[in-house]
Amino acid sequence: MLVNNFDHGISSGSKSINESVNGSHDFTIRGYSLAKGMGAGKYISSDTFTVGGYDWAIYFYPDGKNLEDNSMYVSVFIALASDGTDVRALFELTLLDQSGKGKHKVHSHFDRALESGPYTLKYRGSMWGYKRFFRRVSLETSDYLKDDCLSMHCTVGVVRNRVEGPKHFTISIPPSDMGQNLKFLLESETGCDIIFRIGQETFKAHKLILAARSPVFRAQFFGLVGNPNMDQVELKDIEPSIFKAMLVFIYSDTFPEAEESTTTGSMSSIYTTSTNMIQHLLAAADRFGLDRLKQLCEAKLCEEVNTETVATTLSLADQHRCAQLKAICLKFAAANLGVVMRTEGFKYVEETCPSLLSELLETVAAAAVEERSGGEGLSRKRSGGGSSIIGLDLTSAAQIVAAAAAAAESGDANVRRMRRRWALFGLFG
């Protein structure tokens, strides 16, 4: 029996990369008329310029390069002006229109690279260009010649080849520890130059770091009416634990962990990321212009929304212009209306935010209309002789309308519109 035992060994790979190194040079000839008559084959040279490790020059022949053309044409060439063998390059010569119309005369090798490939210059002095670049009579009556001056723009692209093989060695880069380092400054109180007093507690921080992160602190310390020499600030309407959590975010750019505590000075207080804490942290983020922290709080509150917290979160979202969180709370409250209405949070909304009741009814009514029109994914339920739409007790909806009307003294246009819409369901005459 013949057994084939192939040893494939170690596989490898590489790639060849061809690319051009480009450079440009502008060449101006003043006193063109004085250069005429110097004879065929005689040229005016630009200064040398370097592209791709080689020197180049532009040669302008006012009487043409070839004797047989009888000085009827001007010739222009780009020459290799340094030692080199088989230098492959692309070229472009542009005679500039000096009338401002932008009608330049362009001869480009770059456009024809796919047809014929780069031009190969065998040795020093090899040239690329045009013996009959422009008929001289036409040139002298054109917009290319102005005040006895010609201007040219030259581009050279030297072709290079390199081979890339597999990378056998790599150096791993650790993740950024800037946040940890800055947080250490906060916890160790190293170099602190500002003290915040909140009730009986104090917090030390760095004005520059606070100003870099918060536009409110920036204005307070370094704005037009700010005081850079301020060394103490008393804050009100914010809990110490919330301010501490906000400082942790400012320094570390991470959402405060479930529990943060230190044993250094006034930073020893402990806080937890309960829904109530996140709600207060969102308010603080909005107050001090910390947009990223505000969005992080929105995301956390969205994850933790439930029948007990949705009403207060809805009120908070409305107050601090959190459009996405507000929309989510409205939909959740509408889908669990009967339970939500029995919470303390809903009573707070009734007393302080009557306009939200109208928006809640808008959400309920929109869902109801969608169901009546056969909205996908919605089911109509009936139990105990009462009507229920997407799980909503219509009696609860009626109670909201009554509460909103009373709060707005029956003059709210939204409430009147809701009464008309809910009349479709037989709740109002």
UniProtKB/TrEMBL annotation:
Positions of the MATH domain: 22-156
Record domain BTB: where: 192-259
Pfam families from the UniProt entry: BACK_BPM_SPOP (PF24570), BTB (PF00651), MATH_2 (PF22486)
SUPFAM superfamilies named among the record's database cross-references: POZ domain, TRAF domain-like
InterPro entries on file: BACK_BPM_SPOP, BPM1-6, BPM_C, BTB/POZ_dom, MATH/TRAF_dom, SKP1/BTB/POZ_sf, TRAF-like
Gene3D superfamilies: 1.25.40.420, Apoptosis, Tumor Necrosis Factor Receptor Associated Protein 2, Chain A, Potassium Channel Kv1.1, Chain A
Functional pathway: Protein modification; protein ubiquitination
Gene Ontology biological-process entries: cellular response to salt stress; protein ubiquitination
Family: Belongs to the Tdpoz family.
Function according to Swiss-Prot or TrEMBL: May act as a substrate-specific adapter of an E3 ubiquitin-protein ligase complex (CUL3-RBX1-BTB) which mediates the ubiquitination and subsequent proteasomal degradation of target proteins.
Protein name per its UniProtKB record: BTB/POZ and MATH domain-containing protein 3
UniProt source species: Lactuca virosa
